[in-house]
């Protein structure tokens, strides 16, 4: 499907982005002052640096990099979920940072295509870094035209976390592996006043779990078609939606899940108000030690006739990459030093060991301080992997899908209405 973020669309994208290029009153905002024309100053724009998982390790890495390169200054710009829009604003003013650290999702899917960032494949090979990257990561970051959008860096496993102690308290003898077992476990948990599956039904966490459940009856190719086109009318997609609705109306998900967020989800699980959550690596790393001691990780339970033979998990290699901007190509020697440093085995191992991050690069390091992250890394063939739809969903449909997710998690919404909500999200794409 053609991306709506064409060059013309990029100029009009976001709230007032086009105006930012002509209104002098905006010239002092951080979005427009990120670039530094000094060839001895590298400007990096990242989501790391505050409370984001891995921030302390990243800031320490910057300190080491500065110490090893005394003639090169590094300016670190930090934004959260608004990073993509802030970057686009600065790019429109031709004052964008040199390197951007962000995931491949929504707005960023179109950046290389519209010239907001550059194809880095040639740099990867010229700098001899291809062998450092997992082949799956290279595939995920490469677009349909063969361009490598960014240097892959963070990855994540996304299993299901089960609080074994809460399940035991409710009389659930084993981790559920089928839908029937999950429904039975939910009833027992509710009888003890414990929420079964907590999920951010009003944000991206709910969207991912919904996509995972729908794929119960889909092959990878069928899932790719559904999430690329918005066509959820195939037999497998309809069966997956039916399965989700059956679980939802049986009380599997926490009360009012349609209004919960990722923050409320992790709070419920980490305070043991809920027994089960779909948790990516960064969430697993935050589970308190006393809770982690009696928590197991596994996959999402299957229904009869599923396209998979084992409970499912999500996995992605597109969580954070190093994108190079047009400004960055003017300081490519400094960019090369930075990327090489971040790709070094000792730097990569620190993110794994100190922050519990999964990486898109080869490493022998293990997340020993984060037992649930390490356990997820060892799941291997005990689970089946389904498709993370992020790189296939058209940017214009990404946010509407969140709205459709909240509708889907509202109890009583029929399977037909869930399907209609999902397909409606694609109408503007």
UniProtKB/TrEMBL annotation:
SUPFAM superfamilies, A to Z: Periplasmic binding protein-like II
Record-annotated membrane-spanning stretches: none
The protein's name: ABC transporter substrate-binding protein
